[in-house]
UniProtKB/TrEMBL annotation:
InterPro entries: Calcipressin (IPR006931), Nucleotide-bd_a/b_plait_sf (IPR012677), RBD_domain_sf (IPR035979). GO terms for biological process: calcium-mediated signaling. Belongs to the RCAN family. GO terms for molecular function: calcium-dependent protein serine/threonine phosphatase regulator activity; nucleic acid binding. One of its GO terms (cellular component) is nucleus. This is Uncharacterized protein. It comes from the Eukaryota.
Length: 186
């Protein structure tokens, strides 16, 4: 097989799915399951993932893993039809450091301003608030019971007229009644 196909880029481990529950419980079923893969590599190592009904089989070389995957994919082992998949390759780090490295930043945005301003920083004076005196004057002229035309009507647009409502008779601001505090027992 190694003569025909280059398998150096393949992983040396298989993930076996749909493993029968008896493999995790019964030693006889476990040895039967292991014997299927030990035919391809006598040094194969097994890692069982019971909750997922899976097993990982580590082979000594990618050629043996490929051969086991080709021959055992969708075969019946211990009463269950198993499926064999290659485990993901471990990416080799760019340097020899065993530690993780942060991802390369595409853009660096400051989430919050620094605790102290940089040298030469000056605060920009805030501008005065924008007050529309025309709007304030128009609002002051509004009186209850009168209609106020905000926008005169034209041939192709309607006019906008505001009618200020009067207070209905007997309606006044209601006072909030203070509730009595319950008596305390001592």
């Amino acid at each position: 097989m190694a003569d025909h196909i280059d398998v150096t880029d393949l992983p040396d481990a298989l993930i076996i799915t749909n493993v029968d529950v008896s493999v995790f419980i019964d030693d006889k079923s476990k040895s039967e399951f292991e014997s299927v893969f030990l035919e391809y590599d006598g040094d194969a190592q097994f890692l069982y993932l019971r909750n997922f009904h899976r097993a990982r089989v580590n082979f000594s070389c990618p050629e043996r893993a490929a051969k086991a995957r080709i021959h055992q994919h969708e075969t019946h082992v211990c009463g269950s039809k198993i499926k064999c998949y290659f485990a993901q390759l471990k990416e080799s780090p760019t340097n020899d450091s065993p530690h993780l490295h942060p991802p390369k930043p595409d853009k660096q945005f400051l989430i919050s301003p620094p605790a102290s301003p940089p040298v030469g920083w000056e605060q920009i004076p805030e501008s005065n608030p924008v007050i529309n005196y025309d709007l304030l004057a128009a609002m002051a002229q509004l009186a209850p019971g009168q209609a106020h035309e905000l926008h005169p009507a034209t041939e192709d647009q309607p006019g906008i007229v505001v009618h200020i409502c009067e207070d209905p008779k007997g309606y006044k601001e209601q006072n909030i009644v203070q509730t009595k505090c319950p008596e305390r027992s001592t």
